[in-house]
Amino acid sequence: MTQPTHGFDLSRLQRIDSHFNRYVSRDQISGWSCAIHRHGDPVWQSCQGLRDREAGLAVEADTVFRIYSMTKPVTSVAVMMLVESGELALTDAVADIIPAFAEQRVYRAGSQHAPATEPVTSTMQIWHLLTHTAGLTYDFLCAHPVDAMYREAGFNWGAHPSADLAEACELWASMPLLFQPGHEWNYSVATDVLGRVVEVVSGQTLDRFFEQRIFAPLGMVDTAFQPGEQQLPRLAALYGPDHDKRAVRNTAADERARTAPRLLSGGGGLYSTLADYQRFCHMLLNRGEGKGEGQRLLGSRTVDRMLRNHLPDGRTLIGFGRPLFSETAHAGMGFGLGFSVVVDDVATHTLCSAGEAAWGGAASTGFWIDPKEGLSVVFMTQLLPSSTWPLRTELRNLVYQALVD
Q1: 138 or 293, greater pLDDT
Q2: Which one, of 280, 287, 307, 74, lies nearest residue 194 by Cα?
Q3: Which residues have C-beta within 8 Å of that of residue 270, sequence separation ≥ 6?
Q4: What is the pLDDT of residues 315-332, one digit of tens each?
């Protein structure tokens, strides 16, 4: 064993390269990068393969990636900043901020074209949105008649061809909820609705709030809803699996990256880099404060509260959530205010720590912070959907097997 660095055996960390480079050599992913920090210090970083296979461009430390649902924790932090300033409360009714939600009903039976519904009996509150217990859903889940209603309304992977964020919320509010708020967990557009809450309460568009209140203070210079002129040459191409699970280019994504989005998706719209997202993770792991002076975004107790399980009666996703796709496993997992939270590390059947908070993105990106070990890990690649390969589970095992202190 080599001399441990920050508790890690660096020779064992090389297994990460060996493992994920096999995916690259088999054309199952084009390239990837990963950064591990412990107690605020960089421990290990690797950039492998190609960000653009067709152009022969390598993944580099400043490569820009579509992080999709890794946008959700950023939006959740924005919401909690407004809670801390007294402009919002976790128990505020969503309909008081977005009136269209006052008219919603709950699906009971029937088809997408002829649903039977019932009145909402429990008020949808801000904390329901933060915990995905509001009764909303996603078009791409394809598991329920309400999912089909979302698709019929024009939503595709959470995006809409013409609606802005305010109009999207009006459309979601016009369709039934899956269940009474607070009664179940279902992965959903809830964080997009929170993005609109941020806009209404702050009086700023979501991109401006993010830039002024989060990105600029933390020094996240490459994170935005659209890559700028400096970021576009560094943008990774997006790939998806063919019938043999070999990665093929998603050319439509190239054009979307060059077009300003009309819908500022707080649930999945950001582009970012390895370094930028590590800065965000450091802020969370450091209980609300970034690395530099004046970089405190949240109070320490607020972050502590965000990283606790908020599902009723301490339940986990395996019993309280619908057994559908999300960006985390369900076994052993609870849900905090914007993150999955490990409640029972043994039940996950994966190397991890109780109290670990995490989330991932649709293109197979992922991150986690482990307060117990002082650990933050960010993984970037561009393979849509993230369910193609168990990359994030494999990465956890590979990281923790190298932690030997």
Answers
A1: 138
A2: 74
A3: 66, 67, 68, 70, 71, 74, 210, 223, 224, 225
A4: 999 989 987 878 888 999
Q: How far apart are CA 43 and CA 110, in angstroms?
A: 54
H/E run at residue 360: strand 357-360
- For tokens 């970034």, name the residue: 290
Residue 1 has pLDDT above 50, yes or no: no
- CA distance linking residue 344 with residue 355, whole number of Å: 9
Partners of residue 132 on adjacent β-strands = none
> Measured between alpha carbons, how far apart are the two ends of the chain, in Å?
12
DSSP letter string, 167-186: HHHHHHHTS-BSS-TTS-B-
Average pLDDT, the chain: 96
Point out which residues pair with 49 in neighbouring strands.
31
Which amino acid, one-letter code, is at 397?
N
246-267 pLDDT, tens digit per residue, is 999 999 999 999 999 999 999 9
pLDDT over threshold 60, residue 2: no
- The CA-atom distances, in angstroms, between 280 and each of 92, 96, 284, 296, 347 are 27, 30, 7, 11, 28
List strand residue ranges (DSSP E) for 162-286, in order.
239-241, 247-249, 270-273
Matching residue, tokens 């095992």: 397
pLDDT tens, residue by residue, 183-232 = 999 999 999 999 999 999 999 999 999 999 999 999 999 999 999 999 99
How far is residue 335's CA from residue 321's CA, in Å, rounded to a whole number? Answer: 10
Strands, E assignment, 215-342: 239-241, 247-249, 270-273, 333-335, 340-342
pLDDT value at 293 more than 80: no
Contacts of 100 (CB under 8 A, 6+ apart): 169, 170, 173, 174
Bridge partners of 37, per DSSP, are 42, 376
Identity of the residue numbered 254:
D
